[in-house]
Design brief:
By secondary structure, the chain is mainly alpha-helical. It has five helices and two strands; from the N terminus they run ββααααα.
């Protein structure tokens, strides 16, 4: 496959230097990074929507969430700070820079959620926090490579 080239002319001290730069390799690298950034943002938004939805259902008192809070041994009012915390994580995940601070907060949330499920004898419910932690790990590594995280 033949690559086209662009001519770059640099003027330095009245000397004309011509350098040929392959366009194809630059365009390919740019489109790969652009796709990588788009995928990272889509996954970030999905994680934020999951946290936001979970927080809202706790705040409005969806019956399943109320039963979960009670089965974990917490008083009913405890769903409000947990719900607000989840909504805060969702908002911070989208708007806060650097993202790594928010993502470490998600690890803490996942760890506490797993411990809560285990102490309540609900080992089958630890899958959700584990999936969140795994997706968070992928995103943490992706954002560290992305120029938008800084």
């Amino acid at each position: 496959m033949q690559t086209s080239t662009a001519r770059l002319i640099i003027k330095q001290k009245n000397i004309k230097i011509t350098k040929y730069i392959p366009i194809h390799s630059q365009t390919k690298q740019f489109s790969i990074m652009k796709a990588f950034n788009i995928i990272t943002w889509v996954l970030t938004i999905l994680l934020a929507v999951a946290f936001f939805g979970s927080g809202v259902t706790k705040l409005i008192g969806v019956e399943m969430q109320v039963q979960n809070i009670q089965s974990w041994g917490f008083p009913d009012w405890f769903r409000y700070p947990v719900g607000l915390g989840e909504i805060a994580l969702a908002i911070a995940l989208i708007f806060f820079k650097p993202k790594s601070f928010v993502m470490y907060g998600i690890y803490i949330w996942a760890f506490v959620a797993i411990l809560t499920h285990l102490q309540a004898g609900q080992t089958e419910m630890t899958g959700g926090p584990l999936v969140f932690a795994l997706l968070n790990t992928v995103l943490l590594l992706s954002w560290k490579k992305s120029k938008y995280a800084r």
